[in-house]
Amino acid sequence: MKSKGNTKLNLTPCERKNLRSHKVKVSDILYFSVDELEVLLDASTERAREIHALANFQSIHSIGIRFAKELIFLGYYAIEELKEKDPALLTEEYERKKGYWIDSCVEDQFRLVTHVADTGDLSKNWWDFTKERKEYRSQKGYPSDRPKISWYEVTQV
Predict the structure, then answer these.
(1) CA torsion sign, 5 to 6 to 10 to 12?
(2) Deepest in the core among 58, 122, 135, 153, taking most CB within 10 A?
(3) Which residues contact 112 (CB under 8 A, 6 or more apart)?
(4) Rounded distance between C-alpha atoms, residue 12 and residue 31, angstroms
(5) In terms of Cα–Cα distance, which of 104, 90, 86 is closest to 150?
(6) Residue 157 and residue 155: Cα distance in Å, rounded?
(7) How far, in Å, CA of 56 to CA of 4, rounded?
(8) Average pLDDT in the 69-91 region?
(9) Contact residues for 98 (Cβ-Cβ < 8 A; gap 6+)
(10) Is 4's pLDDT higher than 80?
(11) What is the DSSP string of 46-113?
(12) Of 104, 101, 113, 93, which is closest to residue 136 (Cα–Cα)?
């Protein structure tokens, strides 16, 4: 997958300098393996892996750096790792790990990334999955152990 032009990777000034010295554009990060990025960026394996993952997830239209970071938070580093994953279960796992329930649009993003992983279809945006999520949640609801505090209560603290 090709990285989109506005991909954000939170590169350090040193990492940017290293890319420039190798004449590599940020938009070309996905053309390199993690091992190659280690050398190009003069970074640890973990940092190179994170940067590659951020670029990989943001290659999906309407997925930004914030959600890409959350996928890494859950332990995913490539779109392919989300193949055959249940987006509702991913949402519920994410909420348990965070300790609060999230804005519903985040579940729509889980639905988008799992759709892309399963089909390779990059033509949709996360909001194309709102109806699907609403239908699913009206039928299945949420688990009884869903956190009681909401994301907006946490962000106000």
Answers:
(1) positive
(2) 58
(3) 60, 62, 63, 124, 125, 126, 128, 129
(4) 20
(5) 104
(6) 5
(7) 10
(8) 98
(9) 147, 151
(10) no
(11) HHHHHHHHHHHHTTSTT--HHHHHHHHHTT--SGGGGTT--HHHHHHHHHHHHTSB--HHHHHHHHHH
(12) 104
Q: Which tokens go with 153?
A: 């209560």
- Position of tokens 């699913």? 136
In the block, residue with structure tokens 């053309």:
31
Residue holding tokens 């399963």? 118
Q: What DSSP character marks residue 150?
A: B
- Residue-wise pLDDT for 104-141, tens only, equals 999 999 999 999 999 999 999 999 999 999 999 999 99
CA dist., res. 8 & res. 58, Å (int): 8
DSSP-assigned states of every residue in 106-120: HHHHHHHHHHHHHH-
Distances (CA, A) of 119 to 13, 80, 88: 37, 10, 18
